[in-house]
Description:
This protein is mostly helical. It contains 16 helices and no strands. The longest helix has 29 residues, at about 45-75.
Amino acid sequence: MRRPGQSELPREVAILAVIAFVVALGFGIVAPAIPIFASSFGVGTTAVGLAVSAFAFFRFVSAFGGGSLVERFGERAVLTAGLLLVAVTTGLAGLASSFPAFLLLRAAGGVGSAMFTVSALSLLLRVAPPTHRGRAAATWQGGFMLGGVAGPAAGGLLAELSPRLPFLLYAGFLIVASGVALLLLRPPPSRSAVGAASAATPDPGPDPVGLRRALGSRIYLTALVANLGVGWVLFGVRNSLVPLYVTEELGRTVAWAGAGLLAGSAAQAVGLLRSGRLTDGWGRRPSLVLGAALATAAMAILVLPPALWSFLVSMAVYGLAASLLGSVPAALVGDISPARGGRVVAVFQMSADLGAIAGPLIAGWLTDVASFQAAFAVTTAVVALALAAALGLPGDDRRPVSAG
């Protein structure tokens, strides 16, 4: 691996961003087809919801095991195996002839997704030097975001032709991505091995920080709290509650919900152009304070009396916040565990998955028993926890915080 210069990221970062784009593109293509294909087996709405959530649930419960695999076998092997597992299960799911088989294959795909995500983020944080970790995380996040925006539009059209077609196409994308990972990704040499002739069995470098030690760090706990809020809002409440809020509370069409989500994605894309450099140059603490403050303000706007303009402003402001919250917490984890800390990264990823699972359930229940405003108020409180934790972070504002 070539060592990065002052303004250069390691080549692995670009490769991981391309893989993230392909994975997110394929997932976006298959997402609209999942409920359609599941309902074709003649099952009810609850079973269709189970088919959607099985992937996320098994991704969550298997993430810690994926982290252990990373520490034992290395990032590249686990990443490639995870991509291949999702590819095989997705392709077979598209050919499934019964709902139980489809459900089982979706669950197995969640295991592969956890292996991919944990190993990719672990490798990303390991190859990026402290001065570039924010930019590396922003680049990786950008790959996911671009794929996630482009995928659903194509997926809807393909699902109309055949609900099986998106699954088969996604499987093909993943096979290509796994080939790219296997051929182009190389574990970085340790500092003591830079310039060594052989890289067949590279030294993993410094010993990874144990999970127990990481959990004793206020920095790591802050990253967990921030990532919980990201999962709660970005992957949970925004996708489940916001469309209902627009149609039922604002009395607008679904197109306006799409406009709000588009405003958020556009603001996030703009924010990503600077968030990584802010994280690395301005400092972890002030960048996280800014991101968490923007996120808290964005959710608090939705607690106000409903209005279309405030909804659109809220989505745009949260998009800016998400660009920082996608970079800073990951950089903090890298500061804590710069070596192969698979379980440390796994628990970090699990915090976002937990938010994505719990957020829609709790917010949906609060909407049913109280109001949309009550649900958004609790969401604001969850995001505000990250702001409170960020304000208590130690460290020099001009440099990455120290784990010591």
